[in-house]
Amino acid sequence: MAAADGNTEHDPVAVPLVSVIMIFRNAAKFFDEAIDSVLTQRYPAFELLLCDDGSSDSSTATARRRAALDPVRVRYLEHPEHAHRGMSSTRNLGLAASQGELVAFLDADDKWDPAHLAGEVALLIAHPEAGMVCGQAVDWHTWADPSAVDTASPLAWPPGVVVPPPGMLGALLRRGDLRTPTCNLLVRRSALEAVGGSHDEFRNMYEDQVLLARLYLTQVCVISGNRTAWYRRHEDSSSARAIRDGSYDPYLPSPTREAFLRWLSTLPQMQAEAAGGELSSLLAEALRPYEGLSSNESARPAYARLHHRRRTTAGSLVRRAGRATIPAAVRRRVRGLMRRVVGRGSTGMAAIGNVFPLSRQFGYDRGLPVDRFYIERFLAANAHAIAGRVLEVGDRYYTTRYGGDRVTHSDVLNIDPAIPDTTVVADLADGAGIAPESFDCLVITQTLHLLYDLRAAVATLHRSLSPGGTVLATFPGITAISTDRWADTWYWALTPLSAARLFGEVFGAANIEVVACGNVLTSTAFLYGIAAHELRAQDLELHDPQFPMLITVRAYRPLTAELPGTSR
Asked: CB–CB of 388/407 below 8 Å?
């Protein structure tokens, strides 16, 4: 196989051949750009397989032309009689014809930076125990609107961390957005063959997650933080079309997600641990919203009602729009929340309008406080990171609850050694008494606002964290001030911007994830001391960026650095 410049032969041991499988169907608009991004890779040994899923536009002619122009590196493939057989079958068409030891995927509307393959292959070579590289993609909006914001998909673990099976699947079941984007997946050919390639039953939506699930169950993976894969957001993509026709929703139950979860429950590995293993519990929880629903025709109205709620819910509209300003429809929805408060039958909600709160203990005397609802959901979604050597402030309640047997050593930090279970006595503001790089996870909930020197405290967290470790921190946003001993040191309430800057300056902007929770109703309820159970579930789910009641931060120290020059 010729090198990328067509002049030199590669060493198959030091420079393994990568088979790049690009499936397409009626992809003329972006096809040439995707192909060019592969052919300009700096990695010296690859082949590009253009796999046609029965196109009826000019993309078939484009693929044939590009293969004729560069026959050494590019091949055109199609199904017999130019049939349309779906995405999984077409990926398998490319896999069957591929010659490389390694396999990568790029859809015909996405693209790579020139350094992409070199960075991913180097990471896999450095970890011979791994069967795959799991990376992230840049959600690419600026191709169409230069004023838009491009964001990177979240990583389940910090870059460089090696994750044994089935860790990635557990993370995916906790948080669906922790899947590996196909455009940043590099797999050993032997691993793909071991799982039988893609699953032909899934022709479109979730075909990638089906393949990933089978790999996650069997393969060690290494995490890549390189931002060299660009996932183009546009209205003609398969996911955008599925959202429009109601078969898929990124936030709410949908027929295609139900089909994926029910397929997952049939796998032998899942059935083998059905007696109470963690994966089984996570899958059961993921299936809970589908109780009483089905993807058959009789249940379509139920899904339709859920999708109607999606289209009229401020939180999902704001998340999908990704804009700093709130659309008029969202503002109307938020105002409408308050008009529906009185008369719900809840004693707590009917009390809104009084000049005194129902509780001065944040609602603890009525049930679970609203901020704790969001805190616990945040920790549950990121529970896979609560592992190894864990330090928690105050007590070890969350470490035990969400870390379980993943935790090998648990420490509790307090400034007062008399507090029960304290094992580390220190002030985070100066870090004295905390050894550098001594913890794999730091659980810091509702603590940092009590420290006047926030920058110094965040620096202590970074210094205390081992490379590959994660900080899970929460801050009050819109809040009352406590009435206990902590009132004397309650210095701060943060916004998402201040939290992002605070942690980004220390950990690096690429290594943090900041999320605001809450809306005008939950903020008001929290100020009154109304408990979470006194609110409707759908109102707790709505997140309005104008009313950040609670700020969550996930920050990590990578084991490997991002490729230089890959962020835009």
From this structure: yes
To the nearest 10°, report the CA torsion of 273, 279, 282, 283: -70
**Calpha distance 16→212 (Å, rounded):** 22
Return all residues near 332 (Cβ < 8 A) that are at least 6 apart: none
Residue 466 in contact with residue 416, Cβ under 8 Å? no
Given a cut of 60, whether residue 303 has pLDDT beyond it is: no
What is the tens place of the pLDDT at every residue in 90-124?
999 999 999 999 999 999 999 999 999 999 999 99
Its sign, for the CA torsion 438, 441, 447, 449, is positive
Joined tokens for residue 466: 């081992």
Which amino acid appears at position 232 of this protein? R
Residue count of the chain, please give it.
Answer: 568
Torsion angle (degrees, nearest 10) of CA 156, 157, 159, 160: -130
Looking at residue 332, its pLDDT comes to 46
Residue 527 β-bridge partners: none
pLDDT band at 276 (very low <50, low <70, confident <90, very high): low
- Phi/psi of residue 18, nearest 5 degrees: -110, 125
Return d(Cα 221, Cα 65) in angstroms, integer.
37
The model's pTM: 0.85
Based on its alpha-carbon atoms, the radius of gyration of the chain, rounded to whole angstroms, reads 25
Q: Which residue has the tokens 């999708």?
A: 307
> Are residues 228 and 113 in contact, defined by beta-carbon separation less than 8 angstroms?
yes
**Mean pLDDT, range 356-377, rounded to an integer:** 96
